[in-house]
Every structure is written in C-alpha cells, then in structure tokens.
Amino acid sequence: MEQQNEIRNCQLPCIPNFSEGYAEVPPESLKRKLRLLVRRSLNVRQVRFIKTKTSHLIEKFHILLSNEKKEQNTSLSTSGIQTGDLVRVRLEREIKATLNSWGILKGCMFIPEMAQYCGTTQRVYKRLERFVDERDYHVKKSSGIIFLEGLHCQGTSDYGRCDRSCFYFWREEWLEKINTGAQTENLG
Q1: Stretch (H or E) spanning 144
Q2: CA 150, CA 125: separation in Å to the nearest integer?
Q3: Where are the alpha helices (DSSP H) in the chain?
Q4: What angle do CA 111, 159, 24 make, to 5 degrees?
Q5: Any idea of the CA torsion for 41, 47, 53, 57, to the nearest 10 degrees?
Q6: Model confidence over 83-141: pLDDT tens digits?
Q7: CB atoms inside a 10 Å sphere around CB 119
Q8: 162: three-class secondary structure by DSSP
Q9: Element holding 132 (H helix, E strand)
C-alpha cells in the first residue's frame, strides 16, 4: 500500500498529464460552471449584443437600488503615455470607478488578476495599435491600450493556470504618467 502511494507521488506517472495540458483549476462552483457554459456556447457577436442590450438595464437597476446615478470617471488625465515612460497604476477603486456594469472600459476589461499591480510604479513596454482577437481571429485596431514591462498573465480564476504569458491590456485611463523630467531638474 505504501509503495502505491509513492508511485502516485512520483513524477514519472505524471508526464502524460503534462503533455495533455492538465493544470490545476479552481474549485468548480455552480456560478463558474454556468458562466463558462454561456461563454463557450456563444460567439463574439452574440456576447457583444447581450452586453449592449443588458448594460443599460443593469445601470437602471443599480440606480433604482442606490437612488443615485453612478458617474463613470473616464476623464482621468493620461498626458500622452509613450514607450519607456514610468507610470503609476491607479488604485483599484479609481480604476473601478471608470468601469461599466460589466467591468469594461472602452472594450477593455479589468480582470481581478490585475488588481495586484494597483498602486505600483511600472515602465511602459509599448502602446498597442493592432492585435489579433482570438475570439474571432480578426485583426483589430485599438487606441489607448498600453503594455507594461514584465506584467504578464499567468491564467485566470475562471480558466485556471496558463503558460502563454500574454501581456495584460491596460487602458491609458488606468495609468498615471510619472514626470521624471521634473524630478531630475530638482536634483540638479
């Protein structure tokens, strides 16, 4: 019996699992199962249609419950962020104030895994102008999306671990440029 447990804990029997892409996933909740079922059964246009039609209704429902209109603060100054600039990622509450009821700003979603970088100083890797959308395999144009050096996705709570290390998409509105020129003038 003890030898069987040792065999199960050995790495050799696990090698086929690695090649088949098995990864640790979060516990299966009913909410997660339903969300994944809906996401995987609809195409991009259907999801966009549903979000467009229901966003207005959700906002009205929130207004009725809270008796006040939620203001979306998308007018945060961005001051022309360019490659190589130092930026501060805004606090999570500041970013969430810019999002709609789906957690999206101008088509870009702020996912919970990005929250760990809120309040940190990062360097801009590059601005994103075009990308292949893997949901429908079309090249899309974009504006106001920034890649930050070394900030890569390692997977999500919905889908589990992923080894592709894709860059997170950061909206300009979520970043605050740090003026390094003023700091060096004060030092000199």
Answers
A1: strand 138-148
A2: 8
A3: 2-9, 15-19, 30-41, 44-66, 92-96, 180-187
A4: 120
A5: 80
A6: 999 999 999 999 999 988 778 888 888 988 999 999 999 999 999 999 888 877 888 88
A7: 12
A8: coil
A9: strand 121-133
